[in-house]
Each structure stands twice: as C-alpha cells, then as structure tokens.
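Input sequence (650 aa), recorded before submission:
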Amino acid sequence: MVKGAGWLFGKKDSGAATLTSTDDAAALKAAIDAMDYVFADDLVGLKAVLPKEKSTFPYLARSVSIFIEATLGFEPDVIKEATEVLTTAESLASQDRTNVLRMDRSHLAHAAGQEYGVALAEATLMSAVVLFLTESAVASIRGFYKMRKAYHILADIHQQLAEPGKARSAAADAALADKVAAADRAADEAAAGQASPATEKDEAVAEHAYAPLAARDGETIYQSYISSGVNVCFGMLQLMITLVPPSLGKVLSIVGFRGNKEASIEMLWEATTVMNIHGCVAVLGLLMYFTGPGQANEVVVAGQELPRERCLRVLAEYEAKYPTNALWALQRARVIAMGRDLEGALAILEEPRRTQMRQIEALIVFERAMLSLDLHRFAEAAELFVKLNDINTWSFALYTYYAGVCHLELYRTAVRERPDAVDEAKKHKARANELLARAPTLINKKRFLARAMPLETYLQRKVAKWQARVAAGKGATLADCAGVSPANELMYFTNGYRRAPAAALETSLRELNFHYSDEPTTALLDETAPAFAAAAGKSAFLRDTDEVGARALLVAIVLRSLGRVDEGIDLLKTRVMPIERHDVRGSHMEDWIPPCALYERGIFEWVRTSGKSVDFTRDQLQKAAHYGHGYDLDTRVGLKIQAGLEALKQ
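Predicted structure, token format:
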C-alpha cells in the first residue's frame, strides 16, 4: 500500500530547468496527462509517466498528489511534507512566470505568462489550504494572505480573458508583479505579527463581478488549461470565503474580499465540463460542499435546494472515466446519504475495492463508521472506529472516544431492552469505561504542532466532566456519569440528524429519553415520571441546568426532523431558551447550549412558516453569530450559522 507521495519527487536538485515554448507546451500536456493517474488512484503509474526535471508543470502534478493526500487524510506528517512541497511549487511557477514575461511569446494564442500565472495561483491556493489544516493561528493568517495573492493573480487573468481585445502593457504586468510581491511580503509579515489589513485597491478588486469563463471550440492546450484553471480556482476561492464562520470574521478584513456563493458554484459547474485535472477538482469541490457545509444549511430557499440528481449525473461521468478510484464511489455514497438513504450509502461503501492511496481507504472506513453511528448500529461503528487507529493518524483520541461512546450506547440499549442480558451489559460498560478514559490521553499524539483540534477539546471536557462526577461520588464509573446520550450529541454536531431516516430518529428519542422513560413518544423530559425520579435519585446531576438543557435541545431537533414541529418548538421555548450564558459557565458546562438555541429557534420558525420568517430567522442567526464568547465547537456551529445567513441574503 502506498504510504505517501514523497517518493514521487525523487532526489532533490538545486535548480529549475529552463524551458522553451515548445518544451513547456509538452511539459504542460505531460503534467495534465499524468494527473489523470492521480484521479485514477494509480500512484505507481504517476511515478512512471512524470518527467524527472524540477520544473513548474511536472512539479505541480506531483504537488497535486501530495496535496490530495494531505486534505483527504489530515495526517500531520503528510501535511508537513505538503507544506514544503507546495512552497517549492510556488517558487518554480513564480520564477517561470517572470522568465516568460521577458520572452517573445507573441506567436501564442494567449497572453504571455498566463499559464504560469494559473500554475502559481493553484500552488498558492493549495498551500493556503494546507496551512489551514495545521490549525495554527499564525499559519492560518499566512493562509489568508496567500488567498489574497491568488485572488490578485486570478482577477488579472480573468480580466484579460474576459476582455481579449484589450492590449496588455508592460506597466500592467509590472503592477501585477508588485501586487503579488506585496502579498508575499504581507504573508511573511503575518508570521511575525506585523500584518496589515486590506487596502482600497483590494476592495476595488473584490467589488468586480467575475462570471464563469466558457470553454470554446478549438482551444489550444494552454487556453483550455487557463480558462478551466481560472474557473476552478476562482470558484473554490470565493466559495471558501463564503464559508468562513462568524468567529473568524475578522480575518476577512485581512483578505479584503467577499465571496459569492452563486457565482463560485457556477464557475465550478463550468469547470466540470472540461474533464481534466481542473474538472476533477471542481467535481470534488462541489460534492464536498453539497454533502458538507451545503447539507448543514437548514435555511432552504426555493430554487436553491441541493442538486442531488445533477451531482449524481456528473459523478457518473467521472466515475466512468476513472473507474479504479474509490474516491468517486465515496462521493456517490455521500450524495445518496443526502436523501436519507443511509442503507444505500453503506451498501456502496461495503463493496470490495482496492486502493493505492491509504487516505482513501481511511475515508471510506470513517464514512462507514459515521453512517453506522447515524443508523445506531453501534457495534459495527465501534469496530470501524477502532480500525481507524491502525490505518490513519488524524486523531487517535477522537477515534477512541467515538468507539467508547458506541459501547456506552450498547450498554444502555442492553439495560433498556434486554434487562436479563446482564453479562452483555457488563461487557459493554467495561469496554466503554476503558475507551473513554483512554481517549483524552491520546490527544496530541503524533500531531503536527502538537495542538488539540476542537473536537478533541470537546471530548476532553466531556470526559473530565464525567471523571469529576465520579470523584464527587455521583456515580461509580464514567458510564454511570455520562448523562445525555453522547452519541446523539455527536450526531447533532456532525449533521447526523439532517440525513437520518425516520426509524433512526425514533431510536434517538429512546436514547435521549433513557433516564425518563422507555417510550419515545411520551414522558419527554417529564421530571415527575417515576422512571426519572428513580434515575435522579441515583444520579442527582440529571437535574443540572446544562444536563436538562442539552437533552431538551436535542429532543426538540429530533422532533422537528420527524415533522413534529409544534412539539419541538414548545420544548425549545420552555426548556432551552430561558437558559442564559451565566447558567452554563464553568469548566465542564455545556456552554454551547445558548448560542445553539438561538440558531435553532431561527430554524424552527423558518420551518414552521415555510420560509416566510426571513427577518425573524435572520435576527436569531445574527444573535447566534455574535454570541459574546467562545464555546465548544463554535467554529463548527458557526459554519451552520454562516450557511444560513448566506442563504438569507438571496
């Protein structure tokens, strides 16, 4: 099994090759052809066909391979390698671009340097994304400056292509070079804490409307590469900006640009019509958006529903061209899951496949685990999460926590549904205690920059909360002190309720009602019920404000997902909205409840009025966006808030 793309680069030489116009055309074609091997999951074939010289296009093809591995696997060692490789790719493209601007290229059908400008923008954008993956604040600021640099390059090329009759002057080329150089300096200054905000010129560039560039018959390889490259890079760049959550809103003043979701999606759809590297990236970008942040958006506006059938059609085209890459099957499964057909999605992923890129294998296993979790198949999910520890280094702590949560739910299911299965309950309880206690100790193991991710910080707090209860004598073990269904909390934060079928949602009600009643449709949060009185007699923490609030919030959302909107909104208004931020302050408290309640109140009204509560919903989402302080998973929740606000703009 291939362990990384570093072997693709061979022995590092000291300088770049100098190419003639004939040579670089051949190099571009060879690189484009080679990148087909990347998307066919044939890294052995890629190594065989790529030229060995260290020049822009061959190196860019190699960079795409390591970039894909980094973004698919989130593995610290691969991210570190990708950072180094992409820095070199940027340098090569910048050098070649400068060189060709000094040459006579008047015989070509495109402006001098455009092909290298696109290559530089691609390397710069990939480098920015990889910097974000490090989850370092300083690295992220550098990433935003790289976005600014790429934006200037792409805006200039787009203007040239949109106005082909407009002559280019040496002064214009020099001005662009100055802007790009300034962005480079700004990125370096950002690392030293000396960053400057966007300028008026940046704002002027941002105000311009950028339409998709349509492919034309008879294009040269350069023209096809340039136009499709501008579409996919500009599309991805603008789409990324629209997804910046409110908690990171200040960084947009660094970039100085505002994204346009509709225009960016149009650009990406246009890029998919050219089945080259750019088409592949555009398809993946669209699908990752629609099955990720796009699916998280609950402010569904008429005419802006997720284009499930269109996604499946374009997927079929690319899967036919690259039948050996399981990545396309993974995307197809995710689209199928958007229609609440989790069984169908699982069936696709359980088909036997062989992959050279281990990150794809890990992604498939992770997706199977999450689908199993959302279907409440906790035994299968636990096994898959444990397996991930052996094939992926993204987060040992998170995989272990997920597995522990699954065994906790298996323990509770045995107690609730099979009271005579004492040995089974004991087995799952012991395994849950073991895994949950181990999970926090694995944070920062083999992690780049040794930083905990938000989900790791979340699980660390949850386990510490349960350990504190054990120490205070409120329960004998972690499993006894867990309170609100941890699995359902994870489903909420990972949008599981958005794709769960009705039967799975009914099961969620039973799990959330564990301490109240065995019947999911009655005695919801009824603290006078005998079952709750008995449970609270043993576990007084069940009456804690954040315990009651978290349970009520999750139950309300499940009810809404089942179509029981009035019941859900009543529960939210009476049991959750009264909770203030000071009620959930403390090192172990569920401080995410008030801002999430604001967001959900807006969504409830949107659903209840069939999309007629624009002002009220916007007001609630704005309140959630500007909640006074940070809280658990605020970035993840912020993505949902931002997606809703973007939809309301329309």
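Checked by second reader. Residues 242 and 259 are 5 Å apart (CA to CA).
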